[in-house]
Amino acid sequence: MADTADTERDLPLEFRSVPLGEIETARSRHMWTRSAVGVAASGDLVVTGEWDGTVTAREADSLETRWTADHPDHAVGIASLESDGEDGSDETIVVAGRGETGTIAAYDAETGDQRWRYDTVEDVGEAVKDTVFYLPYAVALETGSEGRLYAAARRYERDGDHRQWHSTVYAFDSDGSVRWTDATDASPIAIDLDADGERLAVGYNRCMGDHDTGLVVLEAESGERLWSWDPGTEGDRRVGDVSFDGESIAVSSHGDKRGYLLGPGGAERWRVDLAVETEIDDETLYAYPNHAYANDGRVAFVTGNTYAVESRETESRHPNEHRVAAFDADGDLLWDDEVRGFVHGLAADGGRLVAPCAQNFRLRDPDTHAVRWFDLESGAGGCERLEGIGTAAAVEDGTIAAIEEPVEYHDEGRTRGEYALRVGSLE
């Protein structure tokens, strides 16, 4: 890849902080999503979701609490909705849950009062085992115009060698009523709505049943399936992320570890190698491209951890693990850089990317713990280092909000960092 941009320099950016209470300390290997953060569309509110179900809205400037609500499940996803109320613009905070009910609930942005609630367990079914991976999980939220909300929920189960997913994609009206659903036996991982609000892209990560395609594009109004696409690879791994840019869709492929830009109907415009299988010292190594973001003719992909084809442990690292790479409309590389640690979720706003970086569990280097940001066109950006790990982030109108979680490496015996909200301004 190209020479890296210098994103590790210190910039004059002061992050404010507020503690979030207690959470189980993360370990060397990555834990599941346990926290969420969002910046309201109005820009004056930062909302956090915690593993114990606590949802707290704070003033963006002072971080003083405006309201607190108790979500029925672990609060692991947050989105902001705007609609036209009787007195003008009306804002709602939507929270996605992972737990017994897999609840999606909407809260008034001013008061925290619950406006509506939907339990996805009614569609994906109840957990058959009392472990986090079996719980109903509202894994993705996407907001549209007129208070429309789109969501994807899933549930996993296993009986011996038989593994199965149950999932549903939803369109909700502003009052919480369901406009349409689309159910499959695959595992959705990401959704994205086009700028006109007419098409919804759904990325499926694991396909091991009758549903055998990684990307489905639905008509947003009706839920009708318009077209589908798949990397055409063996096995059940398919797509890691999807992102619209006009008529194009960027797709990160878990099947072949490449990035794609697709046109209408799924026509392939280009593809690039990101972290494809590579031979190093008699090991075949790869890394998953976990995130994709497309905007204004540019596409960025972020890769994750190194894995070996034939063993659990590896002696070497894939040369493109934990990297962000940006490409132009023709698929030519613009820039690439290190993110250094695992990125649970990429945040973006226009031409800016924000990566909350957790541990590199193979190297166990605390210098990877940070919030890093990049300009999509040039790669220029900055870094706010954290004592703990960065596990969630949001960005809106120059405001960055991130979650820090404490971590203890298994071979160190020391807790680093705390459970806290970090907020800074890039403007």
TrEMBL record:
<dbReference type="InterPro" id="IPR015943">
    <property type="entry name" value="WD40/YVTN_repeat-like_dom_sf"/>
</dbReference>
<dbReference type="InterPro" id="IPR011047">
    <property type="entry name" value="Quinoprotein_ADH-like_sf"/>
</dbReference>
<feature type="domain" description="Pyrrolo-quinoline quinone repeat">
    <location>
        <begin position="52"/>
        <end position="229"/>
    </location>
</feature>
<dbReference type="InterPro" id="IPR018391">
    <property type="entry name" value="PQQ_b-propeller_rpt"/>
</dbReference>
<protein>
    <submittedName>
        <fullName>PQQ-like beta-propeller repeat protein</fullName>
    </submittedName>
</protein>
<dbReference type="InterPro" id="IPR002372">
    <property type="entry name" value="PQQ_rpt_dom"/>
</dbReference>
<dbReference type="Pfam" id="PF13360">
    <property type="entry name" value="PQQ_2"/>
</dbReference>
